[in-house]
């Protein structure tokens, strides 16, 4: 597909009527001179929290956090990619499109991708036919029925059967060469079928395009080791990018604003069959950065489910911490030993209801990991010290006190551990999600103030990128100060900040105050870290005094 010319894109966006486009999805009314509002088309709600800026052509929902520009809105509601959305808008608002000539190398790369994708799609259909329409498939169909998986469910996930032979020949018959079949991970080095006699689970990207397979062992004489074997990593397949079941769960994730993450593909299938939604599997015990990024576009609330063996493993904890650091609200469902979600899908809803908060879970795991009371205490204290006070933290504290039978004074010390921790130099302090929470919010408010009051851009320019902890905030500062191209992430942030500035009535005076507060926050932190250098400390003190008097002047 050739590229649409940039001028054409701009013309389409200029011609698009934002209110018109959104009104087709939800009723809008004028909320102020500059904005419209209505009930959010992306989540269920009774009172309107969906805000539209008709001039900037931006939308933002205060309920579910979705936001972006008119193109993004069409992408989301019509389920299209960027180019598709531009073409949709062009048709709607009658703007003729012009396309760029693309380079021969781009063309070749694109054609290659398209061919491999087509090959994987045909292989999927081939495996499906082998499972449902052949004699060889009969025992496998029985096996599935024996695991209480209904045909309609397994067909939805497009399960199939590799017979260990026949696929490469079929692909060649269809005009693919052996090199392509290898590149798609379907042939081994000798040019024979890569997968032996196995049950095939197609692995799809978020849009439902098959990028690889996971194959489950069915026979004892299987030449491949491992109960489950994946397509080898290659041009299209990267295991760490795949979230099993996401393309089917997408809408429900956004609508319910949560995702349930389990370990096994069959768990995803069994739970969906039992009506538990939205469930995805992580392709391993640890969630990867790219999986979290994909999920983060849809929700910030995760329920992570692990069996008892995986629960305390370092890899599991690493994935969890990664999620916490990226601002996810994590709840943990640790299943009893030997139980898979697929074993008892009906009681699974109850387990979800009893999910533990991250801090409670971590403290519990630390207590169970060692018999040494002292060691358990030290580790649990560390976790509590990194967490801001909350009902969940109180629960964790009570658990610690109960299990270790702590005296009252020790407990009182822990209850205020956060304040105590600040006195000791602990850089890890700043990485804690809830602590970042307040600072992060201030950064966001400040940026909203600038979006709402462009006259303040010079004030923002006087702050350095170092004044912002969040990398996205940093990029947004650069954009406001220096201009440049926006990607989808920045457009979404601009949509949110504009809506916020209006709702919270952030005026210029408040903007100035926020600039000073962010300044003050950084100076105080610098002082805490570099306080031992007297000359530097004095200079920082002087700056801090200046900022404070400026704040006092603002009143
Ligand atoms: Zn919403």
* Structural category: alpha+beta
Question: How many strands in all?
Answer: 14
Task: Enter the CATH topology name of the largest domain.
Answer: DNA primase DNAg catalytic core, N-terminal domain
Catalogue the unreliable spans: 419-436
Bound molecules: zinc ion
The oligomeric state of the chains shown is: single chain
**Major sheet characteristics:** 5 strands, antiparallel
Helix count from the secondary structure assignment: 26
The largest sheet has its strands arranged as 1-2-3-4-5
CATH hierarchy class name of the largest domain: Alpha Beta
Q: What is the assigned CATH homologous superfamily of the largest domain?
A: DNA primase, catalytic core, N-terminal domain
Can you give the mean pLDDT?
Answer: 87
Beta content comes to 5-15%
Structure in words:
The protein has 555 residues and is of the alpha+beta class. It is built from 26 helices and 14 strands. A hairpin with a 5-residue loop joins strand 4 (58-61) and strand 5. Residues 419-436 have low confidence and may be disordered. The structure holds zinc ion (ZN).
């Amino acid at each position: 597909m050739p590229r649409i010319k940039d001028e054409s894109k701009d013309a389409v966006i200029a011609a698009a009527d934002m209110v018109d486009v959104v009104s087709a999805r939800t009723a809008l009314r004028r909320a102020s001179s500059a904005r419209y509002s209505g009930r959010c088309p992306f989540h269920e709600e009774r009172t309107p929290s969906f805000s539209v800026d008709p001039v900037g052509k931006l939308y933002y929902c205060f309920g579910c956090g979705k936001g972006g520009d008119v193109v993004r809105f069409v992408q989301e509601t019509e389920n299209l990619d960027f180019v598709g959305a531009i073409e949709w808008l062009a048709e709607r608002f009658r703007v003729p499109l012009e396309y760029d000539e693309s380079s021969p190398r781009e063309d070749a790369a694109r054609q290659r991708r398209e061919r491999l994708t087509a090959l994987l799609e045909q292989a999927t259909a081939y495996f499906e036919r082998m499972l449902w329409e052949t004699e060889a498939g009969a025992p496998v169909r029985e096996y599935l029925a024996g695991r209480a998986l209904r045909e309609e469910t397994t067909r939805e996930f497009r399960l199939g059967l590799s017979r260990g032979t026949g696929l490469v020949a079929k692909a060649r018959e269809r005009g693919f060469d052996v090199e392509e079949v290898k590149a798609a991970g379907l042939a081994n080095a000798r040019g024979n079928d890569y997968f032996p006699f196995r049950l095939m689970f197609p692995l799809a990207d978020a849009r439902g395009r098959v990028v690889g397979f996971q194959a489950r062992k069915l026979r004892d004489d299987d030449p491949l080791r491992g109960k489950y074997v994946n397509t080898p990593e290659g041009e299209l397949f990267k295991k760490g990018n795949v979230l099993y079941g996401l393309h089917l769960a997408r809408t429900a994730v956004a609508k319910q604003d949560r995702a349930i993450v389990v370990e096994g593909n069959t768990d995803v299938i069994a739970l969906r069959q039992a009506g538990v939604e939205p469930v995805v599997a992580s392709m391993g015990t640890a969630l990867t950065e790219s999986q979290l990024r994909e999920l983060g576009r849809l929700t910030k609330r995760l329920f992570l489910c692990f069996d008892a063996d995986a629960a305390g493993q370092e890899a599991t904890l690493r994935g969890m911490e990664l999620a916490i650091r990226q601002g996810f609200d994590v709840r943990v469902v640790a299943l009893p030993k030997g139980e898979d979600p697929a074993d008892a899908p009906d009681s699974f809803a109850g387990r979800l209801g009893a999910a533990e908060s991250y801090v409670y879970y971590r403290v519990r795991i630390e207590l169970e990991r060692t018999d040494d009371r002292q060691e358990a205490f030290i580790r649990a204290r560390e976790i509590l010290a990194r967490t801001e006070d909350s009902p969940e933290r109180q629960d964790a504290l009570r658990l610690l006190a109960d299990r270790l039978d702590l005296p009252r004074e020790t407990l009182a010390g822990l209850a205020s551990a956060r304040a105590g921790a600040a006195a000791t130099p602990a850089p890890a302090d700043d990485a804690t999600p809830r602590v970042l929470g307040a600072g992060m919010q201030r950064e966001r408010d400040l940026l909203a103030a600038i979006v709402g009051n462009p006259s303040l851009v010079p004030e923002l320019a006087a702050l350095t990128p170092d004044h912002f902890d969040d990398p996205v905030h940093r990029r947004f500062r650069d954009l406001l100060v220096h201009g440049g191209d926006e990607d989808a992430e920045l457009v979404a942030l601009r949509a949110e900040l504009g809506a916020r500035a209006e709702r919270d009535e952030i005026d210029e005076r408040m903007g100035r105050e926020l600039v000073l507060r962010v300044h003050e926050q950084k100076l105080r932190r610098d002082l805490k870290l570099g306080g031992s250098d007297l000359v530097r400390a004095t200079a920082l003190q002087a700056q801090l005094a200046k900022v404070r008097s400026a704040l006092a002047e603002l009143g």
